[in-house]
Design brief:
321 residues; 1 helix; six-stranded mixed beta sheet; eight-stranded mixed beta sheet
């Protein structure tokens, strides 16, 4: 039933009557992308960690396709306009953090009027802005989709969405210096560690070493972890979420003073994404290498260092349909 306002009061009107008037007609929308038979597919995850495949767009790719509108039994639909939109959106499952669009483009498919039969429209968004990759993490995701909606004076909009993926291979960073840091407790522990660089592609190998300059604490093990940190929202609604992606044991047993422990950590086995520096001042993703020492009393001493991750072109990962 629908509520119509007539002569200063609301009147309840059934769906069948609305359809006869052409005000409550139904329609089904289908969105098709051009060139899917040759378009590569990539696996992505949702926030429930479920994987699915999406067509991949990158570089200067545009996106084009068609929209089919099939009318219901009445074959009559009064509307106030039909539009197609291309949207890039940040979404979160955290409370009080609303969705936020970082890009939006639209095209009018049909001005206000009445549809009396099924229609098909073509659309194209050429060389649209691709500054960020598709992403799904701890409590936030970044996705791209095409949305079509039919606006009506009476009743809710009729909408349809179709998602696609964006991946952005990058060039080797020009400046990529090594990282040197130290950590210690006065007169008890002093260690120095070094990583061969600060920026790694997603299939890279972290090479480094740990030097024990002073060791008066009985250390039983040492491990290195990859930590991902999401920051999303803004102001009072800002949230930070951390997740340990993987942990690798570097040493088992107490080292001697002057001993050097090598580090070699391959990144390929882990589910990593490029770093996101800033998306509309509302979203970022950082990665850290966290070095942890554990003594015989289960006390932990740690130091972490941010690293930058980037995507190197990897055609093997992208599958054809």
């Amino acid at each position: 039933f629908y509520l119509l306002f007539h002569k200063n009061k609301y009147i309840s009107v059934s769906s069948s009557v609305m359809n006869m008037l052409g005000l409550g007609g139904s329609a089904t929308i289908e969105i098709n992308f051009d060139g899917l038979d040759t378009r590569k597919l990539v696996r992505v995850k949702d926030l429930n960690n479920q994987t699915y495949k999406l067509p991949l767009y990158t570089g200067s790719d545009g996106i084009a396709g068609s929209v089919s509108v099939a009318l219901g039994k009445t074959k009559k639909l009064e509307h106030t306009g039909i539009k197609v939109e291309l949207i890039g959106r940040i979404e979160s499952t955290a409370p009080k953090v609303p969705s936020s669009d970082f890009m939006s483009m639209s095209r009018e498919l049909e001005p206000a009027g009445v549809l009396m039969d099924d229609r098909q429209y073509n659309f194209a968004f050429n060389n649209f802005e691709k500054d960020f990759e598709t992403y799904a993490g701890i409590k936030a995701r970044l996705r791209y989709f095409v949305r079509v909606f039919i606006s009506r004076k009476v009743g809710s909009k009729i909408t349809k969405e179709r998602e696609f993926a964006v991946l952005l291979p990058d060039q080797e960073p020009e400046d990529n210096d090594n990282i040197k840091m130290d950590v210690g407790i006065e007169e008890c522990l002093h260690i120095e560690f070094e990583y061969n660089k600060g920026k790694y592609h997603l299939k890279d190998c972290v090479i480094g070493k740990v030097y024990f300059a002073l060791i008066r604490v009985k250390i039983k093990s040492m491990e290195i972890s990859i930590v991902r940190q999401e920051t999303f929202g803004s102001g009072a609604n800002s949230h930070v979420e951390k997740d340990t992606i993987g942990t690798f044991e570097v040493m088992d047993g107490c080292p001697n003073k002057g001993e050097i422990i090598p580090i070699r950590l391959y990144l390929a086995p882990y589910d990593l994404t490029p770093s996101f520096k800033n998306v509309s001042n509302k979203f970022s993703v950082k990665y850290f290498l966290k070095l942890t020492l554990i003594d015989d009393d289960e006390r932990k001493y740690f130091k972490q260092q941010e690293i930058i991750l980037w995507r190197k072109s990897d055609s093997k990962k992208m599958q054809k349909k």
